[in-house]
Amino acid sequence: MNKIGIISSLLALLGAGACNGFNTVPADDFETVIADTEVQLVDVRTKEEYAEGHLEGAVGLDVKAPSFKQIALDKLDKGRPVAVYCRSGKRSASAAGILAAQGFQVTNLEGGIMAWKEAGKPIVGDYSYETDSFTTPSGKEIRFHALVHASILIEFDGLAIYVDPVRRLGERVVDYSVLPKAEVVLVTHEHGDHFDKELLEGMSDATLYTNDRCAGMLGRGIVMANGDAANVREDIKVEAVPAYNITEGHTRFHPKGRDNGYILTLGGMRVYIAGDTEDIPEMEEIKDIDVAFLPCNQPYTMTPGQLVRAAKVISPKVVFPYHYSSTDVSGIAAELPGIDVRIRRYQ
Fold it and tell me: pTM of the prediction?
């Protein structure tokens, strides 16, 4: 039996919840239905609701939009089953009725995403990402979005730049399909909290800057060793700088010469993204930094004390502690008078 046949059999078993040509099922059964890749999962809430958090893999189609039926016919394959949900199950029941009338085989989530959450099932998104905006010396806006752990989205002059993009860390999941399309990607090294091979393969249209090891693992990329520099375009420059451990017993995590940190110059603003490093001597050579992203979680990167020392050496205008996991970074600001320390939610 093919996949569609399996789903059809499953839906028949769930038929007790059928009404108006579609099935309404509780969260556990809905989870079983959408586990099959043939099923087209549709969130029929507004774009704003979708952005606040949704089921992984869901396509957003607002049932209240005047053109919902036509958009659904254009976007969905009538030969494949459809699963729909909304906030509480009412709007999705309406959407299911519309789709069923057009010949779709539809399952509706009873109780909506609220029931899904109450059942302890995962959602992705919560795209109330903390964002900081600055104006560059060239007069253009630059925006930094805290995604997860070491993953950063930088938007500058219509360009989306991702640093160490990964989809998942613990319970926090990032759905890149609802974020701006990657045009430039920087990868510091191959550890799983920085290097997501499958995601990077899906960003194949983006220009990738990385070290030799990651380029070899992906089979593509502009290889940058410590000290190399490249012009992304006339007003964007990327420089690779050292990132490594120096504490005895920790050097195996990030050996000297293998990994990169990066300095990005965007419209005249200099941004230092340190990567996984401690407060290494080479930081003495890093000058004129406007914004610095400094990691803080030993044994892999820096202690809060090391971060404070690094910030005093680099002397940026703004510091974002990142990559901090469960490390308490709340006391760092008090140790750095004169530097704007911004703690953002990366975890």
Answer: 0.68
Closest CA to 275 of 179, 218, 173, 194: 194
Torsion of CA 121, 89, 54, 179, to 10 degrees: 170
Helix H or strand E segment including 319: strand 318-322
Position 323 scores a pLDDT of 94
- Encoding tokens for residue 145? 């979005």
Using 50, 70 and 90 to split pLDDT, how confident is the model at 346?
A: low
Name all contacts of 285-289 with Cβ < 8 Å and 24+ positions apart: 286/241, 286/313, 286/314, 289/263, 289/314, 289/315, 289/316, 289/317
Span of 139-148, 210-219, 255-264 with lowest mean pLDDT: 139-148
DSSP H helices in 102-162: 112-118
Q: Which DSSP symbol is given to 162?
A: E
Q: How confident is the model at residue 17 (pLDDT cuts 50, 70, 90)?
A: very low
Residue 182 neighbours by CB under 8 Å, 6+ apart: 160, 161, 162, 165, 176, 203, 205, 206
Q: List the structure tokens of 115.
A: 């029931």
Residue tagged 């029941």 (tokens) = 93
The contacts of residue 303 (CB under 8 Å, 6+ apart) are: 296, 327
Phi then psi for residue 310, to 5 deg, are -60, -45
- Alpha-carbon 168 to chain mean position: 8
Positions of E strands within 192-235: 207-210, 222-223, 229-233
Q: Can you give the C-alpha Rg of the chain in angstroms? A: 24
Give the Cα separation of 103 and 219 in Å (integer): 44
Alpha carbons within 13 A on the beta-carbon side of 76:
31
Read off the tokens for 194.
Answer: 């920085």
Distance CA 187, CA 28 (A): 38
Q: Whose structure tokens read 């309406």? A: 94
